[in-house]
Amino acid sequence: MLCNNQCDGFHYYTYSNAIAPIHCYDSSAETSAKEAGLQVGDKIIEIDGKATDNFREIMLEVMPAADKQMTFKIERNGKVFEKKMTPKLNPKTGSGLIGIYPFVKLQIEDVAPRGVANTADLKKGDVITSINGKNVNNTVELQEALDALY
């Protein structure tokens, strides 16, 4: 879910604290999230005792903590548990990575009056669940399904 926040008169958008681990889309990816068994839709609600309400706050905690073990409080299907993870150093940026994307529900926000979505009778609030019979649950799977069309 995109959140509309206001700060000093400016609006900015961020993703919720729900995640989509890279290893769920690329089984060869060796990440801290894979080692911890994180799943699509898990919410990272706290890192080292600090609440994380959105993806930006998660990244602000993880990026400067390469090679430092951290305690993550995870919410999955209404249950809360802890996992220890150590962000891996990204040698290109010097940042810590745990191997996650933001989870984004595929809900249509707007339909152009003269666009193909309107012709297909899609409406604001509709949720994309499949492309040509292939189930899609988030933006990564959506992009993979669209890429397969071309």
Characterize the main sheet: 4 strands, antiparallel
Helical amount among residues, as a percent range?
10-25%
Number of strands: 12
Structural class: alpha+beta
* Apparent shape: elongated
Q: Roughly how many Å apart are the termini?
A: 28 Å
Roughly what is the average pLDDT, rounded to an integer?
Answer: 86
Q: What is the radius of gyration computed over CA atoms, rounded to a whole number of angstroms?
A: 17 Å
Strand order of the largest sheet: 5-4-6-7
Assembly context of the chains: single chain
The helix-strand sequence is: EEEHEEHEEEEEHEEH
How would you describe this structure to a colleague?
The chain is an alpha+beta fold and 150 residues long. Helix content is 17%, strand content 31%. The protein has four helices and twelve strands; from the N terminus they run βββαββαβββββαββα. The chain has helices at 32-35, 55-62, 116-119, 139-148; strands at 2-7, 10-15, 19-21, 43-47, 50-51, 70-76, 79-85, 88-89, 96-97, 100-102, 130-131, 134-135. The strands form five sheets. It has a four-stranded antiparallel beta sheet. A two-stranded antiparallel sheet has the order 1-2. It is elongated and about 50 Å long. The two termini are 28 Å apart.
Q: What order do the helices and strands come in, and which of them pair?
A:
Elements: E1 2-7, E2 10-15, E3 19-21, H1 32-35, E4 43-47, E5 50-51, H2 55-62, E6 70-76, E7 79-85, E8 88-89, E9 96-97, E10 100-102, H3 116-119, E11 130-131, E12 134-135, H4 139-148
Antiparallel strand pairs: 1-2, 3-10, 4-5, 4-6, 6-7, 8-9, 11-12
